[in-house]
Amino acid sequence: MTRLSLYNQDLFCGAQAILWELEEQGIQPLPSLRTINRILSRNDLTRRRTGRYEPKGARYPNLPAKVPNFRHQADFVGPRHLRGKADPLRFYSMNVVDLNTGRCGTQPLFSRSGNAVYEAFWAIWNRLGVPRHLQVDNEMVFYGSPTYPRGMGPLIRLCLHYGIELWFIPQSEPWRNGVIEQFNNHYQQKFLDRVPMQTANELSAGALAFEQKHNSRYRYSKLNGKTPLEVLSRSGKKPLRFPPSQAAPETPLKKPESGYYHLIRFIRSECKLDIFGERFRVSPDLQYEYVVATIDVKEQKIKLIHDQLQVDEFDYKLR
Q: What is the pLDDT of residues 106-145, one digit of tens each?
């Protein structure tokens, strides 16, 4: 009955989630996880879970996330279409997860333009708070334009102006954004596939309700059975930083004069560093290694970091 109740509320309903729910109900004696799994298996109520990716080979330069809003991961879902119309409305969703607390932010948008993405992040930060680091993949909308790779697109400028260090994961390695990728699957299954929506207003209201439900009610093993908001409330850290206004700043933003953004890259056999299509030759010693290319806006340089040590430097005049 506990599993059915969780299932009907679109909450996690595996053995660990059932045990947490029984604890909250004050039921004694509590069955063990093994007993719950045995009962679920006997009643054919289990689903096989794919294994977690285990990184191999070269050391990857990961960032810790020991406090709330230290690092967010972000990604698109879409395009999707609202159902129930002869000419369905196409939409996307910008999804963000705070790696420390597990809190999510999800913002529907109807264009993948740089300005639409810029406004979506601003709306999410008004609810989650502003991160110290933001991690994304290498989609063009996140960095600007391949024609002008040094032009600093809207998102890069927004992050630099508000003290956020933007990180681009290695090309063709989506698992480096594994937390947001997993959340996107959850968002698809628990929201897009289940909630009927026909208008933009219904989509916006439904996405916000899903976000609030996720943050206040979903429990994760990685959070020791707590909800994301419980983890935030027990963090005991300084207050979160929020944007100075509800409305996003007008674009275009002026060219930033200081700050940093980073690209993580894997150096292959040709010993070339790829910066949004521009290629720089690096030492053969870095072959088959991960490096961090840090763009220093004030000094107009690329500083190449390997294993936390600077190993090279290139002039990089920004437009």
A: 999 999 888 899 999 999 999 999 999 999 999 999 998 8
Look up residue 204 and give its two tokens.
């916006």
Query: Which helix (H) or strand (E) segment is 181 a member of?
Result: helix 178-187
Confirm if 244 and 163 have CB atoms less than 8 A apart.
no
CB atoms inside a 10 Å sphere around CB 217: 15
Q: How far apart are the first and last CA of the chain?
A: 62
How many Cβ atoms from other residues are within 10 Å of residue 267's Cβ? 22
What's the CA gap between 269 and 289, in Å, rounded? 10
Q: What's the pTM value of the predicted model, to 2 decimals?
A: 0.82
SS3 content of the chain, % helix, strand, coil (to 5): 30, 20, 45
Contact 112, 76 (CB under 8 A): yes
CA-CA-CA-CA torsion for 33, 36, 41, 43, nearest 10 degrees? Answer: -170
Say how far apart CA 16 and CA 33 lie, in whole Å: 7
Are 81 and 92 a contacting pair, CB within 8 Å?
no
CA gap 208, 12 in Å, rounded: 19
Residue pair 2/31 in contact (Cβ under 8 Å)? The answer is: no
**Amino acid (one-letter) located at 165:** E
Backbone angles phi, psi at 147, to 5 degrees: -70, -35
What does the CA dihedral 183, 105, 136, 75 come to, rounded to 10 degrees? 50
Q: How far apart are CA 237 and CA 231, in angstroms?
A: 11
